[in-house]
Amino acid sequence: MEHVILPNDNYPWWQRYQPVSYQLYSRSGTPEQFADMVRRCNAVGVRTYVDAVINHMTGLGRVGVSYGGSSYNGDAHDFPGVPYTAEHFTPKNLCPSSDGNVNNYAVEENVRNCYLVGLTDLYGALDYVRNAVAGYLNNLVDLGVAGIRIDAAKHMWPADIANMLSRVKDLPTSHGFPAGSKLFVYNEVIDRNDGAVTVDEYYDTGMVTEFRYCMKLAWGIADYGQLGGLVDYGWGMARDDRAFVFVDNHDNQRGHGGAGDVITHKTPREYKQAVAYMTAHPYGFAQVMSSYYFTNTDEGPPHNADWSTADVVINADGSCGGGWVCEHRWNVIAKMVRFRNAVAGTAMENYWNNGGAVAFSRGNKGFFAMAKGGSMDQTLSTGLPAGTYCNIIDSCATNINVGSDGKARIQINNYEEPIVAICVGCTADSGPTSAPCTGSNCGVTTASPPVDGTCTQAPPSGTSRTVIFVQKATSVGQDLFIRGGIDHTKRPGCVDNAGTSACAISITTNSLGTSAHYDKYNAWRVGDTKLDWYGVQSGQGSYNGQASAGSPLAWTSNTASSSGFQSLNKWGDHYWMLDVNMDCSETEQGWFELKAFLTNSGSGWENDISQGACTGTAGGTAPYTTKNHMVDNLYCRPLSRRSLHRP
Q1: Nearest to 68 by CA among 80, 56, 85
Q2: Can you state the angle between helices 127-143 and 158-166, rounded to 10 degrees?
């Protein structure tokens, strides 16, 4: 958003937290540049989250013209770029302090009705203000922004925030979001059980920052014996499904809001351990910081000659230059993000801590160990199936053998990165970050499995089993769905509603297993009654709050020891599977269309298909051409065996 310009203060970082309008001009660029960035990021699966400053406008005494040409006068409460005038700010009689500023955190009205460090406080109870804020947020949604952090939410009444958010649109499917997706929201609430405002008041408006977590984690990295008590509900810490956690953030790494007992990038060895433990631990929703270097706590970002924000320099080894830290690119941090995605939804088990090293498993999907001094040698219970696993932290330079009893010898001998992280299905990668995929090889490959069966001559009126495999080597944390049915141009009565569309095909999904490996598949297949083009169905199940994006597939393998083993998979790893009973009478002569949809990184539709004739013993010719995969349902056509084909 457009903000004050403070040359006399050497353009400090915090000038961005004094808005003058909701236009998207800033020291970083123009609205057009912002929109282009979001569009390009969405195209490669990178989501954008905006720091929304909606509690206040500029500080008193601020007068000038900002980057987009909007004038502002803090003393007059005049912001024509919105526009806001004096009537839109909190009446002075509602603030109990004598000077009008927040100065007593024990009094709720003082915290929420007074001016925070002299910043002009918006009166969020006004319908005009609520509409203005919602208009700003809806503009972000239209551009493809996935979520927001509400700055200074502690100083806003939760009912005002809830009302503003109720006016915000669903996220656009044109940017790859499943239909019905809502803006992700987390509220900045600094609560250390030391005032009238507490985190639980904001549970209905989104997630809540948990600043006590920073302190507890810092104490634990200094003294590993304290790590077992990281989550302290007795201190008032937010419940697991609402806690937004981090090692540090832009405020407390500088000694500003919520500061004290915080580890930062300035002590990199300890910082890597702190982030590793946070991302391995199941509590909360974790944020990884990416910073720039500073010597003065008010210092703004690396800049060009005109003080506009400088581009990030990426060195040949993948690290950053030009004054940027880029902690997210550090080896341990990038690898541990992948670990966290791989073990999502599992509980922490087999916890072990001897004061100098710590270890635990995440269900039957992953195991983590860390040694404060850089070395350890212990035989521990991993919770994993028997097999050989590689340590993703050292890019699989070392392996760990898990026995039939689930135990393994865990050895660490690395002072700088004293961490082991192993997980089911995790392998080495080429580096801390993955380059975006471009070109024809980025699409998924769809295959139908060889399944024995005898079929009737014509499509039956009832349902018959249909098994679909999609070959796709995904990254940790990604999920794959299919959407399909019949093209809207081929039938009348096709509408964007699975329940009533003539182009949707009735299905009943079948279980692939009950182990934790299939938790997502089993959660998302609940209420999935149609193969359709429209994403999540009304009433369809969700997994840990994540909505389905179509008919779900499960990752499978033909390796008997794999947690994703399926006997129908004849080819190898990375064959995603869906098993349904399909109403063949709703197909086109036994044929139907489908296309894969990827979520969580590189999200979106696979590329259009140029499909040739089917191969294999079944043969067959599609009744029409399409840019989607055209599949002939083997149980809806006359054949005795279907061989693998890849359209």
Answers
A1: 80
A2: 50
Q: pLDDT tens, 495-531?
A: 888 988 999 999 999 889 888 899 999 999 999 999 9
Q: What is the radius of gyration, based on Cα positions, of the chain? A: 27
What SS3 class is residue 92? helix
Q: CA angle 184-186-192, nearest 5°?
A: 165
Catalogue the active-site residues. 151, 188
What single string gives the DSSP state of each residue in 447-500? Answer: EB---B----SS--SSEEEEEEEEE--PPTT-EEEEEEES-TTTSTT--S-TTT
CA geometry: angle 396, 402, 408, nearest 5 deg:
95
Q: Which residue has the tokens 């009166």?
A: 123
Give the Cα separation of 160 and 566 in Å (integer).
Answer: 51
The DSSP code for 312 is P
Q: Is the dihedral of CA 239, 240, 241, 243 positive or negative?
A: positive
Distance CA 483, CA 536 (A): 10
Pairing of strands 463-471, 546-547: unpaired
Q: 3-state class of 555 per DSSP?
A: strand
The b/e string for 503-522 (b: 16+ C-beta within 10 A; e otherwise) is bbbbbebeebbeebbbbbbb
Per-residue pLDDT tens over the stretch 437-454: 333 332 333 333 333 332
Answer for the pair 149, 164: CB distance below 8 angstroms, yes or no. no
Instruction: Copy the structure tokens of residue 550.
Output: 């179509």
CA dist., res. 150 & res. 157, Å (int): 12
Tell whether the torsion through CA atoms of 97, 100, 106 and 112 is positive or negative: positive
